[in-house]
Design a protein that fits this description.
globular, 7-stranded mixed beta sheet, alpha/beta, 6-stranded parallel beta sheet, 2 domains, Rossmann fold
Length: 336
């Protein structure tokens, strides 16, 4: 089967590998769509902190069932999506229902080989029917669920003022679900085109471009109070540290980004505001369910979010192009 492999940072290759053998508790899936995400770009760039090379990337994907365990509700030909966080089910986090931060987690495409291959076999517990969704939509569920999880974790409420810093796909997902909870959302980014999309297509109340005067503008928009909830989705350590300035007294700050660096902040300012600092990692089944319901209710403009599509065989050439043209790429989807 055709497989796309990141051999080392900056190097992708196409290889032919044997089709995986399905284990008794697994579903063999013919991969049809794979979303290209920031994690894949970090892997290619060598900045993903949880990864060894070589690696088959790809954790946002949808496909069709080839084989399923006897007695399974899944049948050959069924369209499915996969929750790519392979949790152990018995650690302290899993016992508390926090499978997204399992002690022994194996994320497809990061800790173990992922979906940039013609077929993949994964435990049935992580495979779900994609009934009522297109394959493209099913491949977009994961990044949207990460945003939905961050918003739920922050307990965003109606009427709250929310700032999303970094409007890549995950930042946009946080924006979408914060708005669906009735918050007034401001988008902040260094790219004007991203800000315009958030305001014109996703319903952001305002947009602020990073640069001279941005802090004063954020202050003006909130009457000097700043924001009840700030989400950082930049993947930039300096931006993550700077974001503490934008939190209102009594506010919450959510790191959706993950970086290799140590993040520091002013403890007097942190205490003065009685800030709540949260990490948000991956997503849970209920977050995926929330996303599916929102898509089916036409509350998410999935067609506008998908800006690029190409054959998976072109991935070695296309990924560097996508990174170079990141200002104009929202969600790219590779097709098998």
């Amino acid at each position: 089967m055709l497989t796309v492999i990141c051999d080392t940072p900056g190097t992708l290759s196409l290889q032919q590998r044997p089709e995986p053998s399905r284990q008794a508790n697994e579903v063999l899936i013919r991969v049809r769509r794979v979303g290209v995400c920031g994690t894949d770009m970090h892997i290619f760039s060598g900045t993903q902190p949880y990864l060894d090379y070589p690696r088959v990337m790809g954790h946002e994907f949808a496909g069709e069932v080839l084989e399923a365990p006897q007695g399974s509700a899944l049948k050959p030909g069924d369209a499915v999506f996969v929750m790519p966080y392979m949790s152990c089910g018995h650690c302290i986090a899993c016992k508390r229902g926090r499978t997204n931060c399992c002690v022994n987690i194996q994320v497809l495409g990061v800790h173990r080989d992922g979906a940039f291959a013609e077929s993949i076999s994964v435990p049935e517990v992580f495979v779900h029917p994609a009934e009522g969704l297109s394959l493209d939509q099913a491949a977009m569920l994961e990044f949207l669920a990460i945003g939905a999880h961050a918003v739920r974790r922050a307990d965003v409420n109606k009427g709250e003022r929310v700032l999303v810093v970094g409007t890549g796909p995950i930042g946009m997902a946080a924006l979408i679900f914060a708005r669906l909870r009735g918050a007034e959302v401001v988008a902040m980014d260094s790219r004007q085109e991203r800000i315009d999309f958030c305001c014109n297509t996703l319903g952001a109340a305002a947009g602020v471009k990073v640069g001279d005067g941005d802090e004063a503008e954020l202050s003006r928009l909130t009457g000097g109070d700043f924001f009840d909830v700030v989400f950082d989705a930049t993947g930039n350590p300096r931006a993550m540290e700077r974001g503490f300035k934008f939190i209102a007294h009594g506010g919450r700050y959510v790191f959706v980004s993950i970086v290799k660096d140590t993040i520091t902040f002013s403890d007097p300012e942190f205490h003065k505001r009685e800030t709540t600092l949260l990490a948000s990692r991956n997503a849970l089944a209920e977050d995926f369910e929330r996303v599916i319901a929102a898509i089916k209710a036409d509350l998410i403009p999935t067609a506008a979010l998908r800006t690029h599509a190409f054959p998976a065989s072109e991935m070695p050439d296309r990924l560097p192009e996508l990174i170079a043209d990141a200002d104009h790429v929202l969600k790219a989807i590779a097709c098998f």
